[in-house]
Design brief:
membrane, mainly alpha
Length: 221
């Protein structure tokens, strides 16, 4: 069992890296760089789950953290890189909001998350619940990515970012989720990325490169 002081410091470090990875996804424009930031976030999320499990002597959470690390810091980034390599578009198309605007929005959403989560933290103030706003901030940033990115792969990354935030909230608010639930969600994410890989391969064969969302909207005409 970890001491309270060491647990708090390590948890703050993992949560800081978790939020930083989300901000990096907004700041960087290259899809490959976003995948690397997503990998960092997967490692941080696995660290959060492992720390809570070790501190509370819950080996089921430690097992879940290993699964999270293998999937969200290993398998999913690998499949995303394969999908990008097959799309023929290594860089992201221009998003609807520029880099400075995205960073300012991320700061505003993080502040909003801390304000909204304050009553929940006040119910049971401890190192774990005090980190709850970080998960909520990542959820809001994930919604922002989905609303402002045009490339299909970037929107999938935004969806994965959103799911990471929801998973972090589950760990920080309720000390994790059952292993079977986490496995079900993880397989859904794996299926989504596999579908992305197949679609980008098909689009490359048909059009020469993966199209933007704006280009796909013209196919119904």
């Amino acid at each position: 069992m970890l001491s309270d002081t060491l647990f708090t410091k390590l948890l703050d470090l993992c949560c800081g890296a978790f939020l930083l990875a989300a901000v990096l996804m907004l700041w960087r424009r290259e899809l490959a760089a976003e995948v690397r930031a997503f990998t960092l976030q997967g490692v941080a999320l696995a660290g959060v789950a492992a720390l809570i499990g070790l501190h509370e002597t819950r080996w089921d959470l430690v097992s879940v953290s290993v699964g999270i690390g293998l999937l969200r810091a290993g398998a999913l980034p690998y499949l995303l890189r394969r999908a990008l390599a097959g799309s023929g578009t290594p860089e992201e198309t221009q998003p609807l909001v520029n880099g400075a605007g995205s960073l300012l929005t991320a700061a505003a959403l993080t502040l909003l998350a801390y304000v909204v989560a304050r009553p929940l933290v006040a119910l049971n103030p401890n190192p774990v619940t005090r980190a709850l706003p970080v998960g909520l901030a990542v959820v809001l940033i994930g919604f922002f990515v989905l609303a402002t990115r045009r490339h299909a792969a970037a929107q999938v990354i935004g969806f994965l970012l959103l799911d990471n935030g929801i998973t972090a909230i589950a760990f920080l608010a309720a000390s994790g989720v059952p292993l079977i639930v986490e496995l079900g969600v993880s397989f859904d994410l794996l299926l989504a990325v596999l579908v992305l890989h197949i679609l980008t391969t098909r689009m490359r064969d048909a059009f020469g490169s993966a199209a933007r969302i704006d280009d796909l909207q013209g196919l119904h005409d």
